[in-house]
Design goal:
The structure holds two protein chains of two kinds.
Chain A (H helix, E strand, L loop, with lengths): L22 H23 L5 H10 L15 H14 L1 H20 L6 H8 L5 E3 L2 H7 L8 E5 L2 E11 L7 E9 L5 E10 L5 E5 L12 E11 L3 E3 L3 H32 L1 H8 L6 H18 L8 H29 L1 H4 L4 H14 L4 H12 L6
Parallel strand pairs in A: 1-4, 2-4
Antiparallel strand pairs in A: 2-3, 3-7, 4-5, 5-8, 6-7
Helix pairs in contact in A: 1-2, 1-3, 3-4, 3-7, 4-7, 7-9, 7-10, 7-12, 9-10, 10-12, 10-13
Chain B lengths: L4 H9 L5 E4 L5 E3 L34 E4 L4 H9 L15 E4 L3 H13 L5 E4 L6 E2 L14 H4 E3 L1 H8 L1 E4 L4 E5 L4 E4 L2 E4 L2 E4 L4 E2 L16 H11 L2 H4 L3 E5 L3 H12 L3 E5 L15 H7 L5 E4 L4 E7 L2 E6 L4 E4 L1 E4 L3 E2 L3 H5 L8 E2 L12 E3 L4 E2 L9 H15 L13 E3 L6 E3 L1
Parallel strand pairs in B: 4-5, 4-12, 5-8, 12-23, 14-15, 14-20, 15-16, 22-24
Antiparallel strand pairs in B: 1-2, 1-3, 6-7, 9-10, 10-11, 13-21, 17-18, 18-19, 25-26
Helix pairs in contact in B: 3-11
The chains are: A alpha+beta, B alpha/beta.
Chain lengths: 387, 424
């Protein structure tokens, strides 16, 4: 028996104990998470890419609830709850669900028939897997770094060159959404192009990354592009900025599923030792009931935001960024507290708690990291005025 | 259909499998699963475990195991509920007071609190530097030749030192969680014992006037940048300045910039300036007094658009007039930002609704004063009440004898120095 967890029967069945629409989907995701995913979680942490599990999750609709009909019910709250069920057991897989989900969002929002229709349906069902290379462009738009990919117009499309570090949920036959700065003949940047980057295309090289401290099975590679040709069929947005502006809140909001799930997993681990260690754990801060109350309030806040994922107002986006930051901070506190509650047993290398501490670090540093979120909120909160 | 007899026999014959927990490390031995790596086949009963068997995690022997029954989560929760001793001194008790905003309302609150309690922890969160200044001076600074360093009475850092306030300058307050008594900011989360919202109001811009194209004079920072943009009349020549909105702020600024030597055009939707006080009939004499200045008033016009034109700007009105200017200032009124209040669940009526006498909001431990509040749905964005409001809030926080606030009709002295006037 896994000592970081109580037996299944004693745990509350799902993250959000409601019989809301989509409960059937949540139950199906829950069954995969608590069954086959739980059995593989250590292997995934140390490098196994769970391709079959992701496909199984896709088949339940657990990676496409945010997409509109015919592929999904357009329910961001449901998508976030499903991601939380996965992340509660395995943060790495929860992260890959997010990668795949936002890739689906890019395809759906592209308006490009070649990326919608059958292609999007296969993506939604998890038959094809995809990721996102938007960390760099998102940071570029927030003024944190410059664009790493360059696109040069050629007959019928563009040639893209450059390298991106650390793009996740990739594989030899996967794809991801990416953004390149378009340069004209004079070498001046004119605008940005968002496109579908296919890992098996000519000119794309996937390079192994150095070892991470955890979450190794996320299909994370460095991408090197040399004269990758992008034609009309793979254009997601040209120019990219209006599309990015429209989807940025949804992009960030979906990540809340990871934070909520990892936090819930940590709280589960605290309850798991309460019977034996409650008599000493009572002297700790961040006890499970107070953490749960804070998590429930945050989840409720996220569920309200999830009703209007395409609200483009600045105030709404600040609220989304703040909820995401709160999620990351709560995740760190809960994982740390779980370790304090479990004591030596949580310090075992094989302990779920130990893994979850590393997962919580990931939630806090993956783009947008806590520091990026705060910087962006500060930028958006500053009154504009003439220069 | 009845189950097969053999299944029933088996179920009756065998006692249920049990679990045993290692008292040293928490490893749980489940009889059904056994410990295959340790040589115990699935189904090995605890009693049948040899004495030399070792816990696979920590190495102690079976003597250190006790019977384990997974507790129900509900029972654990109930146990915790009944035992709310408070493990550590709750952070919120020692958190003191957090003030949002470092304008007059914020600093007056800090002064009043410090006067009542020399030891109370006070933190102040402000998007600006927190410098102490008198906002009314911004309406007369040019004519009086007040430079930036003379407008600042005391730097934020100095005031914080003098009052023993922890000042978080250039920090944005983002949201309030009243259940956990925390304020989220762009530099981290603060716990509060009491929260004072003194963040004031913001310029309300009509959609036809984009923020990057026009100045607003509602705080020192932007005013000083406007002064830099206008430059010195003697050195750089007079500028054409267009002011939209002929209320108090618009009239005072127009008057001051004209006295400073600039060419000012003041426009308004109403046909006379200070039309809000039409019953006092001050518009006409004010216009007469302005005749000697480089100040022109154009009434009865509505802004249609504002765009860049060369190094300056062009404003068009709905009746087809166009105005070119080097700088454009919007004095089109104020609105209270609602995000903080709404995140805290505060009652809202065009501003933070507070009790008329105690200035408490609808949520315990959250107080508000200054330009961001409304009493019975009305805001009062004047200077005079602020110090009295601060004493009311401070007394409530410190548990001193209540100081009830009394709203009074404001007497407004309009600092149009060419024809100073008082409005009631």
């Amino acid at each position: 028996m896994n000592l970081a967890d109580l037996s299944k029967a004693t745990l509350s069945p799902t993250v959000a104990p409601i019989s809301a629409p989509g409960q059937g989907l949540i139950d199906a995701v829950h069954a995969i998470a608590q069954g086959p995913l739980k059995a593989q979680v250590e292997a995934i942490d140390s490098g196994l890419y769970p391709s079959e599990l992701l496909k199984a999750l896709g088949a339940t609709g657990g990676m496409s609830a945010h997409l509109a009909q015919p592929v999904g019910p357009f329910d961001y709250g449901l998508a976030i709850r499903a991601m939380a069920e996965v992340s509660r057991v395995c943060g790495a897989t929860g992260f890959m669900v997010w990668c795949h989900a936002v890739c689906g969002l890019y395809m759906q929002q592209s308006g490009n028939p070649a990326l919608m229709g059958e292609a999007l349906q296969r993506h939604a069902r998890g038959e094809r897997l995809g990721g996102t290379a938007l960390s760099n462009p998102m940071k570029s738009y927030a003024g944190i770094e410059s664009l790493l990919l360059k696109a040069t117009p050629v007959a019928g499309g563009w040639l893209v060159n450059g390298a991106l570090p650390w793009v996740s949920n990739l594989g030899p036959d996967h794809y991801c959404g990416a953004v390149a700065g378009v340069v004209n003949a004079a070498g001046e940047a004119t605008h940005e192009l968002m496109f579908m980057l296919r890992c098996d295309a000519v000119g794309v090289e996937l390079r192994e990354c150095p070892s991470f401290s955890g979450m190794e099975g996320t299909g994370t590679y460095a991408l090197r592009l040399s004269n990758l040709f992008i034609g009309a069929d793979d254009v997601m947005a040209n120019p990219a900025k209006p599309t990015i502006g429209r989807i940025r809140a949804a992009f960030v909001m979906l990540q809340c599923g990871m934070a909520v799930g990892v936090t819930q997993g940590a709280i589960d681990s605290i309850w798991a030792v309460e019977g034996q260690l409650g008599h000493v754990n009572q002297f700790l801060e961040d006890r499970p009931d107070t953490l749960q109350a804070e998590l429930d309030a945050l989840t409720e806040r996220v569920m309200v935001l999830a009703r209007t994922p395409f609200d483009t107002s600045t105030e709404f986006f600040i609220n989304v960024l703040d909820a995401r930051a709160h999620g990351a901070e709560l995740c760190l506190r809960a994982a740390q507290s779980a370790l304090m509650h479990q004591g030596a047993r949580g310090y075992l290398l094989s302990s779920d708690v130990q893994r979850r501490v590393r997962e919580s670090h990931f939630v806090a540093i993956v783009t947008p990291a806590i520091k990026h979120l705060r910087k962006e909120i500060a930028r958006l909160s500053t009154e504009e005025s003439p220069a | 259909m009845r189950p097969a007899a053999s299944d029933v026999d088996l179920a009756l014959a065998l006692p249920p499998y049990l679990s045993f927990i290692c008292d040293a490390c928490g490893y749980i031995y489940n009889e059904a699963e056994g410990d295959v790596d340790g040589g115990l086949a699935a189904g090995t009963r605890y009693a049948d475990i040899p004495d030399d068997w070792a816990c696979p995690l920590c190495g102690v022997t079976k003597a250190d195991f006790t019977l384990y029954q997974a507790p129900s989560l509900d029972a654990l929760r109930a146990q915790l509920q009944g035992r709310r001793i408070g493990p550590v001194a709750s952070r919120r008790d020692s958190a003191g007071v957090v003030i949002v905003g470092a304008g007059r309302a914020g600093w007056q609150t800090a002064e009043a609190l410090r006067a009542l309690d020399p030891d109370l922890p006070i933190s102040m969160v402000t998007a600006c530097l927190g410098d102490v200044y008198d906002k009314p001076q911004l309406s007369v600074a040019m004519a009086r030749g007040l430079s930036a360093d003379r407008l600042v009475r005391e730097s934020g850092a100095d005031a914080a030192l003098r009052l023993n306030v922890r000042l978080l300058s250039e920090t944005h307050a983002v949201s309030v969680n009243s259940a956990t008594q925390t304020l989220r900011t762009t530099r981290g989360t603060l716990h509060y014992g009491h929260l004072v919202l003194a963040h004031g109001a913001q310029a309300a811009l009509p959609p036809s006037m984009p923020a990057p194209l026009c100045w607003r004079v509602n705080h020192l920072g932007m005013y000083l940048r406007l002064r830099v943009a206008l430059g010195d009349v003697k050195a750089n020549g007079a500028k054409d300045v267009l002011i939209v909105g002929a209320g108090l702020v618009g009239c005072e600024l127009a008057n001051d910039l004209a006295l400073g030597g600039h060419h000012v055009t003041l426009i308004d939707t109403q046909v006379q300036p200070l039309a809000r006080w039409s019953s006092e009939q001050v518009g006409q004499p004010l216009l007469a007094a302005w005749q000697s200045l480089t100040l022109r008033f154009v009434g009865g016009v509505t802004v249609a658009s504002l765009v860049r034109k060369g190094p300056g700007y062009q404003l068009s009105t709905t009746d087809g007039q166009t105005f070119d200017a080097d700088q454009v200032i919007a004095a089109t009124g104020l609105q209270t930002p609602s995000r903080l209040a709404l995140s805290a669940g505060l009652a809202w009526r065009d501003g933070i609704a507070v009790d008329a006498e105690t200035l408490s909001t609808s949520v315990p431990r959250i107080h508000a004063l200054g330009d961001c509040i409304t009493i019975d749905g009305r805001s009062s964005r004047f200077i005079e009440p602020i110090a009295r409001q601060a004493r009311t809030v401070a007394a409530a926080i410190c548990g001193a004898a209540p100081v009830l606030y009394a709203a009074r009709a404001a007497v407004v002295r309009v600092k149009t120095s060419s024809w100073p006037l008082t409005l009631h």
